[in-house]
Write a structure and sequence with these properties.
Blueprint: E1 3-7, H1 12-23, E2 27-32, H2 35-42, E3 48-52, H3 58-68, E4 73-76, H4 92-120, E5 124-129, H5 142-162, E6 167-175, H6 180-186, H7 197-209, E7 218-222
Parallel strand pairs: 1-2, 1-4, 2-3, 4-5, 5-6, 6-7
Helix pairs in contact: 1-7, 3-4, 4-5
Length: 232
């Protein structure tokens, strides 16, 4: 049975992805801070394992990986948007929080997965959740956009450094899937075009099911009518 660890698994893209993998016969490790929500996701599924942990807590994350055991795939998903404002209105504490979750948290999870995959000798796959903002930002997103650009560099480095160990790395850039972050954005932009979060989950499943001899370095899946392509 293939296994996957999913961070940010208690809601949104992470939860939809976790539920899809469970129904497709995977053993799924569920990581998020809110234990009660993880329990809801895992309920009724013997192969879904709730592992409450904050992705920014290196010790708690190490304990979660140790409790889960062998991991074939990591979906490095947990993230936050942060305040929406011009840079001079961003408090340094808010900048540090977004950086800690979106970048340090992803680094910690990737480091643990890479180490476990390398030690096993079987290789594995790391899928980072980037964003359309890793390429083209929206206004007032300096914290989020900066971290997502950094994730692209992390993905490329992991893919390169993982080659000798049969560890692949790819990035999925998701645009306007119905999640908590997008719901919040829609309060100020009610005309925003969105797509069902299930399409993002299906895309992650496609990437994860590939043999280690094949990789999707970057995939973009987005709401068709969102203003990503072209220019104003």
């Amino acid at each position: 049975m293939k296994s996957i660890m999913i961070t940010g698994a208690s809601s949104g893209i992470g939860r939809a992805t976790a539920e899809l993998f469970v129904t497709n016969g995977w053993r799924v490790g569920l990581i998020a801070r809110r234990a009660e929500l993880l329990a809801q996701v895992a309920q009724g599924h013997e192969n879904a394992i709730a592992l409450p942990a904050d992705v920014t807590d290196a010790g708690a994350m190490a304990d979660a990986f140790a409790a889960f055991g062998e991991v074939d795939v990591l979906f490095n998903n947990a993230g936050m948007f942060g305040p929406s404002a011009p840079i001079d209105e961003i408090a340094l504490e808010d900048w540090a929080q977004v950086l800690n979750v979106n970048l340090n948290g992803m680094f910690i999870a990737a480091r643990l997965a890479f180490g476990a995959m390398r030690k096993s000798g079987r290789g594995g796959r790391i899928i980072n959740n980037g964003s359309i903002s890793a390429h083209t930002p929206r206004e007032g997103s300096v914290c989020y956009t900066t971290t997502k650009h950094a994730i692209t560099g992390l993905t490329k480095s992991l893919a390169l450094d993982g080659r000798p160990f049969d560890i692949t790395a790819g990035q999925i850039d998701i645009g306007n899937a119905e999640s908590a972050i997008v719901t919040d954005l829609k309060t100020t932009n009610p005309g925003m075009h969105t797509m069902d979060v299930g399409h993002a989950a299906q895309s992650v499943l496609h990437m994860a099911q590939l043999p280690l001899s094949a990789n999707v370095p970057f995939m973009t899946v987005m709401a068709t009518k969102m203003p990503y392509l072209g220019r104003g």
